[in-house]
Design a protein that fits this description.
This protein has 168 residues and is of the alpha+beta class. The protein is built from 3 helices and 8 strands, in the order βββββαβββαα.
Length: 168
Amino acid sequence: MSTPIRRHEGKVDQIVIDESWYQPQPGLTTSISAGGVVIRQQNEQIYIAVVQESPNRPGYVLPKGRIEPGETIEQAARREIEEEAGLRDLHKVAELGSKERLSYSKTMWKKTYYFLFTTQQIEGNPTDPHKPYQLFWLPLDEFQNLFWPEQRELIAASQDLIRQSGRV
């Protein structure tokens, strides 16, 4: 498993994501989240929308976040994608299931439901007021550059569907 690198105040910290991140800890609250794999095609290439949460957080992640009261899982996924990536023109293709792990702070257990969406939108204007998210388009063949292993596994397991959906 690769070791992601985080830059913090000019220093480089290594964060090791190992099996312990995927073992539930007794007494932790479970947080339910939703997010998406958003794809678009350009010049025969399929791209995945990824975000960088802030300059102090390592790597790229799929847009996702907590479900707010009264939201369905899909509504939360769409809202989180809009807030973090600035993408609004989303067309749902499929439900991709859920993944579980410890939160980045290791203070809660996270269960995240993912959807596959397509879009023609290229530019995004993230609207999250709490974090300076940036949108990037990662070629599908470079999905191993995602920070979280379970997100890489999700895309690996969904590649056939992603490729089929991206070829419109």
